UniProtKB/TrEMBL annotation, chain A:
It comes from the Bacteria. This is Copper chaperone. It comes from Chryseosolibacter histidini.
From TrEMBL, chain B:
InterPro entries: Cro/C1-type_HTH, Homeodomain-like_sf, HTH-type_Tx_Regulator, HTH_TetR. This is TetR/AcrR family transcriptional regulator. Residues 29-48 bind DNA. Residues 6-66 form the HTH tetR-type domain. Signal peptide: none annotated. Gene3D superfamilies: Tetracycline Repressor, domain 2 (1.10.357.10). GO terms for molecular function: DNA binding. It comes from the Bacteria. Keywords: DNA-binding.
């Protein structure tokens, strides 16, 4: 199956933030791999998913209290 | 669905190499790279997880290119002097044609990335080089030495000459231009072969 790659600009930065988000993403059935580039100014969240559904991710992350918007290429 | 575009990826890689060589690892950020390559940051993240991933992928690809050029017309069963000559010609050609890559690989060697990249080293190349040396030892064409000593004698003289050549200067400074030609290469190679004989 082809992996969809979703890219988001966030404000997830501190270790604790990442742990919080990790719990959500690790238990999501569609998310295969993810990482947050905390060195980047946009704190980019990159997700490999088997389902292209950015709204679902944005909803999940913002409900946890973070900013999250999709970055388009 | 996002599709991969190999041309875009290649443009990103080329710009990234240039940035690292000109400004060092700290001079490379995804944002600056996006601007330089004329793409959006999101595009870069399609191909690379983060900066470290980008650097490791760059290194792996440059090494693969170097390996394939180095192994051209080479066979580990060749007589030692012949094989080493092919190696010298190929390696010199690769570095002279790719000065940016050579610089980048030197930067990696002396940076914390060395530990990250070394895990991705191509095994075929390492095995082929090992086979070549072991054949030569068995055929009494090469003296048995610790690997680092062997490498330093067999290849470091060439690399130093290539560096002189690429900087355009020898040891006597700016006045005299140093050019690594075939005559100098053969002269040095014959000294190296003499040193490595049992």
């Amino acid at each position: 199956m082809v992996s969809e790659i979703l890219i988001f600009k966030t404000n997830i930065h501190a270790e604790g933030d990442v742990r919080k988000v990790a719990q959500l993403l690790n238990s999501d059935l569609h998310v295969r791999k993810w990482n947050i580039d905390r060195d980047d100014i946009d704190r980019v969240l990159r997700i490999e998913s088997d389902d292209y559904n950015p709204e679902h991710i944005i909803h999940m992350i913002t409900r946890a209290g973070f900013r999250c918007e999709e970055l388009l290429d | 669905m996002r599709t991969r575009d190999e041309n875009k990826r290649m443009a990103i890689c080329q710009k990234a190499l240039k940035m690292i060589v000109e400004k060092g690892f700290d001079g490379l950020s995804m944002q600056k790279l996006a601007k330089a390559a004329g793409v959006s940051p999101a595009t870069i993240y399609i191909y690379f997880k983060d900066r470290d991933d980008l650097i490791v992928q760059l290194w792996t690809e440059e090494m693969e290119k170097m390996f394939s050029i180095t192994l051209k017309d080479f066979d580990p069963a060749m007589p030692f002097d012949e094989g080493l000559k092919v190696q010298w010609m190929n390696r010199a050609k690769y570095f002279m044609d790719n000065p940016v890559s050579m610089h980048f690989m030197e930067q990696i060697k002396y940076s914390p990335y060395h530990h990250l990249t070394i895990k991705h080293l191509n095994n075929t190349f390492v095995t082929t080089m090992g086979e070549f040396a072991h054949n030569a030892i068995r055929n009494k064409e090469l003296v048995r030495l610790p690997l680092e000593v062997y490498w330093s004698v067999a290849f470091a003289p060439l690399y130093q000459l290539v560096k002189f050549h690429m900087s355009g200067r020898g040891l006597r400074g700016g006045a005299e231009k140093f050019v690594l030609d075939e005559k100098i290469m053969n002269q040095t190679l014959s000294l190296v072969l003499k040193a490595l004989k049992p």
